[in-house]
Amino acid sequence: MLLGKRGNRVGALEEGAPFGCPQLPEAVAERVLLRGIFEIQRESCDVVLGERALRWRRIQPELPAGGSKCHQLGSGESLELEDIFSVKLKRRCSVKQPGKGTLLGITLFICLKEQLNKLKDSTLDLINLSEDHCDIWFREFKKILEGFSSRPKALKILLNPQSHRKESVQVYYEKVEPLLKLAGIKTDVTITEYEGHALSLLDECELQGFDGVVCVGGDGSASEAAHALLLRAQKNAGVEMDCLLTPVGAQLPLGLIPAGSTNVLAHSLCGISHVVTATMHIIMGHIQTVDVCTFSSAGKLLRFGFSAMFGFGGRTLALAEKYRWMSPSRRRDFAVLKALAKLQPEDCKISFLPAGSLCNVDIFLNISIMAIPCLCSVAPRGFAPDTRLNNGSMALIAVRNTTRPEFVKHLKRYSSIKNQFNFPFVETYTIEEVKIHPRGKSNGYNQQEEGGDPATVPESGFPWNVDGDLMEAASEVHIRLHPRLIRLYGGSLEEMNDSKVACNCI
Ligand SMILES: Nc1ncnc2c1ncn2[C@@H]1O[C@H](COP(=O)(O)OP(=O)(O)OP(=O)(O)O)[C@@H](O)[C@H]1O
């Protein structure tokens, strides 16, 4: 049912107060655009279209024996205009009556906010059989919708058919495209054919006519698209890539539809990993400007990204990549268990800005650097719960060497309500820049870790997990934060505390 749900913007007016009277200050301040009678949810209603909201109140029909002509009853309802995303004339068509059918009224398509950051689409029917009456109202609603300039009109869609269980094509055509069509958004879809396809496509393709790019897939696809948009922005602005002190922001906003085995980016942006919520944020033009990191080594830019793990996190991903034939969740759980069985500390030097008190040469089991909260089902409060999408800093979480049971205890805390950082071997810092210099030998380490299997740590270097993608770096990696460098479609996160925990990997 449309009305009265917690948190949505379809609200009740004060009992008995007529439209525009002094008891309704918000209505007084608002210019009335149209007023008329419609049937809403089988009740005759006096409906007022203001500049900000649509308000309606049930009325008693005219009495045959005279008396009150039009009496307002009960409390009224209202709908914020900014929650409407489409309007259509509602008609009944039949085979007997060819043509456009019998007019029934107007249907408004609206975005409803539910609990835990979830958005969903809904409808409100305004029933009136008069063509002239409905035409005036329909045109007014169209004009209002055209005034929402931040909403996209044309989108470039990138679809990774290999994400998760290969269901992203189905997810897009069944759940996303119908909503985009309803909102009148034009789309141009490319189904990526190989790893790196999105990167090369966004390097060359004409993006002039688009208001945004949307990626349907997991973190690997999302991060590749963000990296590609930022590379393109530097190229267009003639910025020297390898001394990237002040990169320019990406021109187009990026939308992320979660359809991968890990959807940390989409989850962090919307507070939930939910296809319809992500789609509604895109349709409504909700934009977040998000901090981005650059990863460079020996003065060369390796990539743009939002989060990274070195040590246990990097090695777990390197292992998972070796077992691609397994299902995504089995692969991840298996890799975590295998990496735990072979748990090895990393000898490395860490230096960061602003300077902290971390003893900068030590052995660490894992080092995480996160510019965004990194929410996911196994860490519902996030891997870096105190970091925001655009607070101009990154979280550095350094886990020093400890026993395996203590390390497992720390990992398990991510999925519980207990503080995962409350261990003597875990240190957290708020930083803007960090250099991580592994002092061991990657190949020697590889032999030790995998019992001689050279595939786990590639000869090209140490494995890093950057936004769920494997990055190899042989020497020091320099990570720098660039505040608000990219615009992403998403909402502000308010109600994330009660998310259900789903972790079975440890
Ligand atoms: N047609 C394709 N074939 C193979 N790989 C592809 C294809 N299209 C895109 N890719 C690559 O797949 C990688 C992973 O995809 P994505 O993150 O969307 O899915 P995922 O299920 O979350 O993957 P992962 O399990 O690796 O996290 C991306 O880096 C992307 O470059």
UniProtKB/TrEMBL annotation:
SUPFAM superfamilies: NAD kinase/diacylglycerol kinase-like. Residues 150-299 form the DAGKc domain. GO terms for cellular component: membrane. One of its GO terms (biological process) is sphingolipid metabolic process. One of its GO terms (molecular function) is lipid kinase activity. InterPro entries: ATP-NAD_kinase_N, CERK_C, CERK_PH, Diacylglycerol_kinase_cat_dom, Lipid_Phosphate_FormReg, NAD/diacylglycerol_kinase_sf. Residues 440-459 are annotated as: Disordered. PANTHER family: CERAMIDE KINASE-LIKE PROTEIN (PTHR12358:SF26), SPHINGOSINE KINASE (PTHR12358). This is Ceramide kinase-like. It comes from Peromyscus maniculatus bairdii.
